[in-house]
Amino acid sequence: MRMPSSPRFELYAFWRTSATYRVRVALAMKGLPTHEHIVNLDAGEQHSPAYRALNPLGGIPTLVEPGHAPITQSLAILEFLEETRPLPPLLPADRHGRARVRSLSGMLAADTHPLITPRVRKYLNASHGLDDAAWRAWQTHWFGTGLRAVEQRLASEPATGAFCHGDQPGMADICLASVVAVMRVLQISVPDTPTIDRIVDRCNTLDAFAQAQPSRQAGAPA
Ligand SMILES: N[C@@H](CCC(=O)N[C@@H](CS)C(=O)NCC(=O)O)C(=O)O
After folding, report:
1. 35-62 pLDDT tens trace
2. Beta strands across the sheet bearing 9-13
């Protein structure tokens, strides 16, 4: 099979975003050269017509492979990278294993992270008068709900190993570390999640994860 070569990807990104972190780690694990364009969430640049033309929902990131249509949604991007550049794998070889990893990934990237995004805050503030304290309580609640459920699974399911699934890092680890990374930016912690803590600490010993840390990105506060 002829594999595609690796042109330089263009990644529309912002330093602290959890979804961008996921894509940064996957690109680094697969050794793919990338150029980042900053979309400043604090300045509302995700709402600009130019960015909305790439990503109509105004979510970051968007990945562009030269000559192809933009790809939005971090999980779709990870799946695309996995299909086109299979090594090292982000998904296990067996179907049941892949279903488990996708399920854990969805719990984090689809059912936890989106609830704490700026657009949700903006709506709750404008429509329901949610103040800063209530927003923090909201974020803490939804991070806790997601992470406690993931902890329960990781701690009890035999497929958990040094990482979320076995002893190689993959998609579920990327999603887990991405949620924990943004929680650290927000200074929110969920107690009593020892399996998550162990796995994320292990992820952070790997270059691809360490280099994707929000604090190491262009535009991050000193
Ligand atoms: N499901 C999307 C989420 C994208 C998303 O919401 N990203 C956040 C930053 S992590 C964002 O750009 N939010 C902008 C906003 O809420 O206005 C993905 O995984 O790519």
Report:
1. 999 999 999 999 999 999 999 999 999 9
2. 34-38, 9-13, 62-64, 71-72
Do residues 150 and 176 touch, judged by C-beta distance below 8 A? yes
Tell me the C-alpha distance between 71 and 65, whole Å: 8
**With respect to CATH, is domain 95-215 assigned 1.20.1050.10?**
yes
Tens of pLDDT, residue by residue over 68-102, are 999 999 999 999 999 999 999 999 999 999 999 99
Residue owning the nearest CA to atom 13 of ligand 1? 59
Q: Give the distance (Å) from ligand 1 centre to CA of residue 72.
A: 10
Superfamily of domain 9-88: Glutaredoxin (3.40.30.10)
Residue ranges covered by each domain of the chain: 9-88, 95-215
Ligand 1 in reach of 119 Cβ (< 6 A): yes
Q: Whose CA is nearest to atom 18 of ligand 1?
A: 73
